[in-house]
Write a structure and sequence with these properties.
By secondary structure, this protein is of the alpha/beta class. The protein has nine helices and twelve strands. It folds into two domains: about 5-190 and about 265-425, Alkaline Phosphatase, subunit A (3-Layer(aba) Sandwich); about 195-255. It starts with a helix and ends in a 19-residue tail after the last helix.
Length: about 450
């Protein structure tokens, strides 16, 4: 049965609102880290238990894993609500985590069915309708990433094996494309610049910084003379300038610091580069980036044209499997590849759960908000209703399987969940795009 709290939130009545506990904000000053001075720069190590590091609460991280084609509903949603439920076939690899996850039924963005709406997964807003919202169609991960400028080397990291899912969007409505080659992701995250490259990078940042100063002065003059609608456009542009300035300043600070070391070779040495070990490599790098505080926000995507034929029992492409005509043998292939996606997620969460957080109870998973889902409910019918959504980790008091419908039977806006996730990350928000409140998911 639905809880009264869930019903109140989805009804639009006054929801429970999260208030951060003292000393637990993600916006606190960057944690002091132990640094070893060496040839060519500084090697930054993970947070340690040693007294050499100030005892501070570890930061909160955010990981999104998504696909554009939804999930076969009969094999994703449990038949029972509450904490006592049987995990369906697709989610079976998460059995070890059942007390630390929340599966949400009957939540979506209220959009009509059809392809093309799935790009609204993380924002609830289509690009063509974004002008009606103060922050256009910025995605929830990028709202969080803005809070980490200057605290981490990379405000956010995006990875996949192909382009196409279109999950992450900045404040100007521009898609942030993922890195699609694990080796290039390794270079981006862990390969240090040479001395000459660092010199050139500093010169480029300094030159760009001076250009931004000039643009800022010109922009202020334009804003004073502009009409209302033009001021709105200029305000959006000013936001972009401020974010770029913050990004450039942050990059300058990190140039002379060496990146953490990470060995990716074991994922490929003597092994065929299958979809499994390529995604293993991606998830391992994301986990290490979280552990060493290279970033606190990451997205991993399973694109719609990705080939899964090296997975046992799968002979068709992902998109082809969704158009199965209700044929049992094709549905079985779809469930096999969707189970693979969840198994990859489960493996990553086990890795996060194996890392103890210094100066705090719990593990890295307890400080990582994990969101799995899609902007499409089920590709077989092109439905954009009842999106397959689950949240894990994050230190939440998880609810099991929740029916989020209102007492009147209306689906809950998915952006209500995003308000709660933003608050948990330390971003004080009452609304996010199409939200009508916050979803009740307490933590601590």
């Amino acid at each position: 049965m639905r809880s009264n709290a869930a019903r109140a939130v989805s009804d639009g009545s006054a929801p429970w609102r999260y208030r951060p506990r003292s000393g637990r904000s993600s916006d606190a000053k960057m944690n002091r880290r132990l640094a070893l001075k060496g040839i060519g720069g500084i090697l930054t190590l993970p947070l340690l238990e040693s007294g050499a590091v100030a005892a501070q609460s570890p930061p909160t991280r955010f990981l999104v894993v998504g696909n554009p084609l939804g999930m076969h509903p009969d094999h994703f949603f449990p038949t029972e609500f509450g904490k006592s439920f049987t995990l369906p076939e697709t989610l079976r690899s998460l059995e070890w985590l059942r007390g630390r996850l929340t599966i949400l039924s009957h939540t979506d963005h209220g959009m009509n069915n059809g392809h093309g709406r799935e790009i609204s997964f993380l924002n609830g807003v289509l690009p063509e309708n974004s002008s009606a919202y103060p922050e256009r169609n910025i995605s929830v991960d990028q709202v969080m990433a803005r809070r980490t400028y200057g605290r981490v080397r990379f405000p956010s990291v995006h990875a996949a094996l192909e382009n196409g899912i279109r999950m992450s969007w900045n404040a100007n409505g521009v898609e942030l494309k993922p890195v699609t080659d694990p080796h290039r992701l390794f270079d981006h995250l862990f390969l240090n610049l040479t001395a000459e490259q660092r010199k050139v990078r500093k010169q480029l940042i300094a030159r760009n910084g001076s250009i931004l100063d000039t643009v800022g002065e010109q922009l202020a003059g334009l804003q004073r003379r502009a009409g209302r609608r033009d001021r709105e456009r200029l305000d959006q542009y000013a936001t972009s300038i401020r974010e770029l300035e913050a990004s450039l300043a942050g990059r300058s600070e990190w140039i002379d610091r060496d990146k953490p070391k990470f060995d990716i070779s074991r994922r490929f040495a003597g092994a065929e580069t299958t979809i499994e070990n390529r995604y293993d490599a991606i998830f391992d790098m994301i986990a290490h980036a979280f552990e060493t505080d290279l970033t606190r926000v990451a997205t991993v995507a399973f694109p719609n044209e990705l080939g899964y034929t090296d997975i046992d029992g799968v002979t068709r492409g992902y998109h082809a499997c969704t158009h199965n005509g209700k044929k049992e043998e094709v549905i079985a292939e779809l469930v096999a590849l969707e189970s693979f996606q969840i198994a990859q997620l489960s493996r990553c969460l086990r890795k996060l759960d194996a890392v103890r957080e210094p100066h705090a109870d719990g593990t890295l998973l307890d400080r990582t908000i994990v969101l799995f889902g899609s902007g499409m409910g089920y590709g077989g019918t092109h439905s954009n209703r009842n999106l397959p959504i689950l949240v894990a980790g994050g230190g939440f008091r998880h609810l099991g399987h929740v029916d989020t419908r209102s007492g009147s039977g209306f689906n809950m806006p998915l952006c209500n969940l995003y308000v709660t996730l933003l608050q948990r990350f330390g971003v004080e928000r009452d609304r996010f795009n199409t939200s009508t409140g916050a979803f009740e998911l307490r933590y601590g």
